[in-house]
Amino acid sequence: MSDARDGAPEEAVDSDPAADGGHDPSAPSTHTVRLELVDEPGQLLAALQPIADNGGNLLSIYHERGNKTPRGRIPVEVDFEATPERFEGIVEALRAEGITVMQAGTERYAEEITLVLFGHLIDTDLSDTLSRIEASASASVADVSLAAPQGTEEVSSARLRLEARSGETSEAIAAVREIAEEKELRVVAPLAGVEA
Question: What 3-state class would DSSP assign to 41?
Fold first, then answer.
């Protein structure tokens, strides 16, 4: 009696991903991106275009119109199918279009940092400061609390809660310090790499 596998090359039996319940890494799979969009007509369509242009197959869109981010933008979650290579191209294309990508697949902002900025925050355009922190791609602004006890014309302070990618806390703090220095603001940041 001979085995049914006799005469067949061993790799032919083992190379079928479905044979052992495995997954073909080049096959399309479901991906999720969380975006932050400006509340203006056409922004959702502009965010979906790079996904379609780069081979993504849209599955669902969750548009949180009534829920705004700390910067007054609208969070949108998009699920789509794409191969791993196309997924990377889609994320790059979204960022190239100036769309804020809050989360892409398993890429999450895993570390929280709380900073305090002091100075003429209103006069130096707080919205611009927050936008530039977001554009640094090392961190996302999760929460902002502004205090201006003497009015907007005087020195004010803002507590920022940032979410940084795992291992990129130092880069996020450095980006904030660079922006603050340019705008003549002071930064109080946690000490990096120090155990409490």
Answer: coil
